[in-house]
Each structure stands twice: as C-alpha cells, then as structure tokens.
Amino acid sequence: MGAPAMPSDGRSRSEAMQASDDHDLIVRLYHEENPRLVRYFHRNSVSRAEADELAQETFLRFVRSGTARMLSSPQGYLRRIATNLLRDWADRSSTRVDKLKSPISDAAEIPVHGDPHRALAARDDLAFCDKLLLDLDPIDREIFLLNRVDGYSFRDIGKRIGLSEWAVKRKMLKTLDHLMTRMANR
Asked: Which of 63, 95, 112, 118 has the most CB atoms lying inside 10 A of its own CB?
C-alpha cells in the first residue's frame, strides 16, 4: 500500500486530510449536538418544525465560520449561535404575535344584532374563552390580557411584571399557541 493519491482539485495531501478531519468533526458534532439543539429550541416555545430548521441553521453558521478545528469547545460556540438565533427568531416572532388573532380578539367582532343562532354560538365561544383563560397560568393570563385587552406593549408588560421583553414575547407565543390549539380541538 502506498501513500494516498494527490487530490485532483489542486489541494495538497495535508490540506485534503485537514478538510477530511474537519468534515469528520462536523459530522460527529452534528450527531452529538443536533438533538440537544432541537430540544433547546423546542423548550423555548419554538414549534418542532421550526426547532429543526433553527438547529440546521445553527450548524450552517457554524460550518460557514470555519472555526471548527480552532475551538477548544465547539459545543459552546454552537450554543452561542443557537442563543443568538433564538433571539432573532423571537424578534421576528413578535411581529407575528402582534398580527395573530386570538379567540379573545375574535370576540370583539361578534355582531350585536342579527341571527340568534350566531349570537348563541358567540356566547358559547365567549364562555369557552373564559374557561381557557382561567385554565392558564396566572402570569400567562396576565400577560395575555395586558397585551390583547389593555393594549400594553411587550416591553411595558415586562417592566410591569419583572420579565424581559423577550421572555414576555415567548410566553405570549406559547399562550397563543395553546389557546389556538384548544380552540381548534374544541
């Protein structure tokens, strides 16, 4: 057996071996860290599908940085990238939260006059919404009502209850998701 053949792309043998080592490291890290990253994103109120996408984006940014071999703790760098991506996602999501309709905001559109069957259905919807709100964690309920009924911003709610704006957004997304799921499964 002789020495490995020279790479055909113009790289030296040592460059080719280094690239192969980097590839092996990234594959190993992916298998070890991807499930942790998905759980991290999912624990932070990100849907399963979005958690998978954010984990992929984390690795894409990691690979593009070209620092795999230079880092003493690539896992720490992956977590930093994931944290930054989660913050970016939360900022983008806050726009989505503002635009999402909820059972309570839909209740404002109930016609006062008109079809008695619609009025009865609307009353049933409101009673169900009241029950859903009472089932929420008290802090989640307060955040929801302050934002959707009283019109407070996430920043103002955070100051009022002692949470960061980001934590308020996250709780609001989780609450809206819960309410919409319960309404859909009604």
From this structure: 63
